Amino acid sequence: MSDDTGLVIGAERADCPEAVALVAELDATLEPLYPPESQHGLDINALLAPHITFLVARQDGQAVGCGGLKQFADYGEISRLYVRPSARGHGVASEILHALEACALAKGIGVMRLETGNRQPEALELYRSAGYAVRAPFGDYSAHPNCVFMKKHWPEPRSISMAVWYGVQLSGGAPHVQRNGMSHTRRPLIRRQRRLKVQRRQL
Asked: Largest Cα–Cα distance in the chain?
């Protein structure tokens, strides 16, 4: 299930060296933009919690981005989505977001929420273009001038179809990919495919 771009998105431990480096780069990017009280990013230990799925995007084997999914009783939360500057402009962030959504759908989650910042126009545009709308604070978050809270939900038929298109299933909380009707538990989870993009556009 490879494609011409060499992009593979898979579940990995957040404390592996490459994931740690990605999270550190994200923190270094956000630190000068926001005061401490409006920075809510999870640290590495928090990302290891059993209710969090952490994905790493690799381009030709090199880690270029990451993202996390926090699972709650009635929604999933996007967290720590980041793409290295050298890999931007090629749709990698969008693919990570779609992969996180597919993981949520495979877990039976039909509502997604997130918190981002008002000084990240690219992130805001990414989420808006993916169907997220601004909403009030949720969970343990409090309102802050720099914080933007967003939400997305989809009808059940689309949820099922999107999860199937990505070939995602979950067993014991670990994502794996479907190939020819057989379940594989190897680490690579999702490979970008042009046919999936065509099917999504037809909705």
From this structure: 49
Q: In what order do the strands lie in the sheet with 62-71?
A: 133-135, 147-153, 111-117, 76-83, 62-71, 52-59, 7-11, 188-191
- Parallel, antiparallel or unpaired: strands 168-171 and 174-179: antiparallel
Give the rounded distance of the alpha carbon of 91 from its chain centre. 13
Note the CATH number of domain 7-201.
3.40.630.30
Q: Please state the domain extents for the chain.
A: 7-201
Contact indicator for 72, 111 with CB cutoff of 8 Å: no
Q: pTM for this one?
A: 0.78
Mean pLDDT of the chain: 80
Name the E strands within the chain: 7-11, 52-59, 62-71, 76-83, 111-117, 133-135, 147-153, 168-171, 174-179, 182-184, 188-191
